[in-house]
Each structure stands twice: as structure tokens, then as C-alpha cells.
């Protein structure tokens, strides 16, 4: 991809890409949904107390709205290598090219990281209470798990991207952390 490339951000890449973004456009991936289905043992949790981070799961009939991030051609090899180092730490994701429809009508193929359901870190289908309980308490190398969720929810709001599941989960985690942190607040 000598002409540079597109990356689809559906979670933390939306608010912390950590690479120079030439252009960002709201985009939809058809047949995918984002969910807290990946046990995080490094960035947002530990092996003893794993957190939960977002993965992209194949789901026919579902649309995932996120951000298409364009990388300039000269930077692509370096950015691609950095993304692999960040996203493929434990091989729970696989790299995929997904077709996106951009808000301005363009169609592009974008690199993204999708969940491998056969991986031991996969934990799809957890109920919202269980997800909230885990996220409210987990903490990893990149900080509190709750911060990851709140940042994602805030950016979806800012971008005008509705995601009822994430909004509901964020409200639940806020309630839990408020109960727990009323003394330290």
C-alpha cells in the first residue's frame, strides 16, 4: 500500500491513535459490531484481574460506526508496524481489511483489528452488569479500565455517533465507581 492507507478506529484508536492522521472521517463498517469482548491483561487490566476492551465482532445485519483515519504514504510502513505492536500483543485480534462507507460517500478499504473468537481472551456475550463490574475495578499499564470506556463513550458523543450499548455501560460503571469512590472523591 505505497499510497498510504486507511485505518478503521472503533475504540481507543478514535481518541488515541498515536500516529499522524492526515484525514479523519466518520465511517461505517457493515456486518460488524463493537463490543467489550476482549479480556485485557496488559493495557487495561492484569493477568490476575483482567479488564475488558473493545473488539470488533462479525455480526450480519449490524453496522459499526467509527472513524476512518488516513495515513500518508511515506508514513504507512512505520504506522503499520506500530499498530501491529500495539494491537497484536497477545494475538487476540487478527488484522483484517474491511470495506467502509465514509460519511462523505467515499468507499475505502481500511485496516482494522477484529476479534478472534477462538482466542482464550475472547469473552463475548457477557451481560452488562458483569461487564460493568469488571470495568469498574480493572486497571492496567495504560490506566483504569473505566477511563478507556468513558473516553470511548465521550468521543462517540462528540462525533455524534450513537451507541446505546456503550452509553448504558458507561452509566452503569459511573454508578458503581461513584458508590465505591464516594470517600475518595
From TrEMBL:
Signal peptide: none annotated. Its EC number is 4.3.2.7. One of its GO terms (molecular function) is transferase activity. Pfam families: ChaC. One of its GO terms (biological process) is glutathione catabolic process. It comes from the Bacteria. InterPro entries: ChaC (IPR006840), GGCT-like (IPR013024), GGCT-like_sf (IPR036568). Gene3D superfamilies: Gamma-glutamyl cyclotransferase-like. GO terms for cellular component: cytoplasm. Keywords: Lyase, Transferase. SUPFAM superfamilies: Gamma-glutamyl cyclotransferase-like. This is glutathione-specific gamma-glutamylcyclotransferase. It comes from Paracoccus sanguinis.
Amino acid at each position: 500500500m505505497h499510497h498510504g492507507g486507511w485505518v478503521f478506529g472503533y475504540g481507543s484508536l478514535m481518541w488515541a491513535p498515536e500516529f499522524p492522521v492526515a484525514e479523519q472521517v466518520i465511517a461505517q463498517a457493515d456486518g460488524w459490531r463493537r463490543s467489550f469482548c476482549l479480556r485485557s491483561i496488559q493495557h487495561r487490566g492484569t493477568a490476575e484481574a483482567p479488564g475488558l476492551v473493545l473488539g470488533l465482532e462479525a455480526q450480519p445485519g449490524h453496522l459499526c460506526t467509527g472513524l476512518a483515519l488516513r495515513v500518508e504514504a511515506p508514513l504507512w510502513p512505520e504506522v503499520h508496524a506500530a499498530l501491529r505492536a500495539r494491537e497484536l500483543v497477545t494475538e487476540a485480534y487478527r488484522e483484517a481489511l474491511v470495506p467502509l462507507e465514509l460519511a462523505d460517500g467515499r468507499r475505502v478499504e481500511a485496516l482494522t483489528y477484529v476479534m478472534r473468537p477462538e482466542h482464550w481472551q475472547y469473552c463475548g456475550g457477557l451481560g452488562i452488569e458483569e461487564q460493568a463490574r469488571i470495568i469498574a475495578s480493572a486497571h492496567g499499564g495504560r490506566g483504569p479500565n473505566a477511563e478507556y470506556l468513558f473516553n470511548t463513550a465521550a468521543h462517540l458523543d462528540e462525533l455524534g455517533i450513537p451507541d446505546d450499548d456503550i452509553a448504558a455501560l458507561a452509566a452503569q460503571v459511573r454508578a458503581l465507581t461513584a458508590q465505591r469512590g464516594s470517600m475518595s472523591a
